[in-house]
């Protein structure tokens, strides 16, 4: 009988692997099946000043106790010969796109799950997919041959089991694990609750409230008890997952689903103590957020402002819902400042965030009851957006960004807060 096999392919230490693969000095002697042939290397935010946190680490670095989110200083104490490189987000995104294209060539039914992961599915047994391990190995080898990046693949009767099998594949010699339907319950029974993918803090509740140590323990709890403790939705999900059930389909468009909101956050190069300085950055971030909202063809009416104080200790994140939907930074800026003034304690600020959500599709009709100059601003925004699209973010910007507090030029050279090249 024909059945669907689901898979999850996950790139190993993706950012760090991209760096090793694209630097000629590390090319010689690398093996797909031997992590030890890679250098001890990390990707970190500020290697010149030996500051920042570890964004990614090769297996060789991890073997010395180095982990992501560890400070660079701690990492260098663990490995004095550690190779530290700046993040190159543009490179990682480019490689990600090409890898996703390769996955789709092997498995037309595929769903990008993150920048370095993808689900796929195929009918089995059929002439083309006669052996799940062999067709998965063909993809694994192709990714290595093209990109010199290792990957792991988990296979199972559904997406959730594929994800759990992928975890097990980390310890497999060939990096591939296939859990057949008749094996699933036996495999799940022995896995610790802490390794139950997707449940987050609920795993701790399962341990405290029910004494669960393994997924097998969770499977022994009745559906009714789980719903009573976690609610109907998550109670049902936990019941199904613990029994190896997941009916989620492969959705090729899910990774490109419309955003429910847009936000930008920036960590400042120094502490900002003056309201005028903080206001400049708020306006810059608001400009970026509103431009993204306009590009999406939407408007929003819930504006949010957040700050983190000096030393990254304390702060706030507050929101206000407006009476109308807006996509113009000029109109939202006074509301943004008012929110900031209301909750700011006067302390020095090290990070700032702005967001706009509660979105609807933009229409040609512009309500003028609240903002009379909406049409004029809309035309100006269209021109500015077009210039940014054609000539870049620095083709036109506010004069206030030229002041010492301005972050526009620095931010324009980064992707995701990190150096693009």
From TrEMBL:
Domain UmuC: 6-200
Known EC number: 2.7.7.7
Enzyme class: transferase
Any single GO BP term: DNA repair
Pfam families documented for this protein: IMS, IMS_C
GO molecular function, one term: DNA-directed DNA polymerase activity
GO cellular component terms, A-Z: cytosol
UniProt entry keywords in alphabetical sequence: Nucleotidyltransferase, Transferase
SUPFAM superfamilies: DNA/RNA polymerases, Lesion bypass DNA polymerase (Y-family), little finger domain
Protein family membership: Belongs to the DNA polymerase type-Y family.
Entry protein name: DNA polymerase IV 1
Organism: Sulfoacidibacillus ferrooxidans
Organism lineage string: Bacteria, Bacillati, Bacillota, Bacilli, Bacillales
């Amino acid at each position: 009988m024909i059945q669907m096999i689901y898979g999850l392919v996950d790139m190993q230490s993706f950012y760090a692997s991209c760096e090793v693969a694209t630097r000629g000095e590390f090319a010689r002697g690398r093996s797909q099946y031997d992590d030890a042939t890679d250098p001890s290397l990390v990707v970190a935010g500020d290697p010149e000043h030996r500051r920042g946190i570890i964004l990614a680490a090769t297996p060789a670095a991890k073997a010395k106790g180095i982990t992501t989110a560890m400070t660079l200083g701690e990492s260098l104490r663990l490995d004095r010969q550690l190779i530290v490189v700046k993040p190159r987000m543009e490179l990682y995104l480019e490689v990600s796109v090409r890898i996703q294209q390769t996955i789709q060539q092997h498995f037309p039914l595929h769903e990008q799950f993150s920048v370095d992961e993808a689900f796929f599915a195929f009918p089995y047994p059929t002439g083309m997919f006669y052996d799940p391990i062999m067709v998965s190995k063909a993809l694994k080898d192709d990714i290595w041959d093209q990109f010199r990046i290792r990957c792991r693949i988990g296979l199972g009767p559904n997406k959730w089991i594929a994800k759990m099998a992928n975890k097990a594949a980390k310890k497999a010699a060939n990096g591939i694990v296939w859990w057949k339907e008749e094996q699933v319950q036996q495999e799940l029974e022995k896995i610790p609750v802490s390794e139950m993918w997707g449940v987050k803090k609920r795993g701790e509740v399962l341990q405290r409230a029910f004494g669960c140590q393994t997924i097998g323990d969770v499977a022994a709890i009745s559906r009714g008890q789980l719903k009573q403790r976690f609610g109907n939705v998550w109670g049902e999900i936990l019941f199904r997952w613990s029994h190896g059930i997941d009916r989620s389909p492969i959705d090729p468009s899910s990774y490109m689903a419309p955003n429910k909101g847009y936000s930008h956050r920036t960590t400042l190069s120094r502490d900002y103590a003056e309201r005028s300085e903080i206001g400049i950055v708020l306006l810059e971030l608001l400009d970026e957020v509103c431009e993204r909202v306009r590009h999406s063809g939407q408007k929003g009416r819930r504006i949010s402002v957040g700050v983190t104080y000096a030393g990254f200790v304390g702060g706030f994140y507050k929101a206000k819902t407006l009476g109308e939907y807006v996509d113009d930074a000029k109109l939202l800026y006074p509301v943004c400042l008012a929110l900031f003034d209301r909750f700011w304690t006067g302390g020095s600020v090290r990070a700032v965030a702005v967001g706009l959500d509660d979105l609807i599709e933009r229409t040609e009709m512009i309500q003028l009851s609240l903002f009379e100059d909406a049409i004029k601003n809309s035309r100006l925004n269209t021109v500015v957006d077009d210039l940014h699209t054609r000539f870049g973010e620095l083709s036109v910007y506010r004069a206030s960004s030229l002041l010492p507090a301005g972050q526009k030029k620095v931010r324009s050279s980064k992707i995701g807060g990190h150096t693009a090249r």
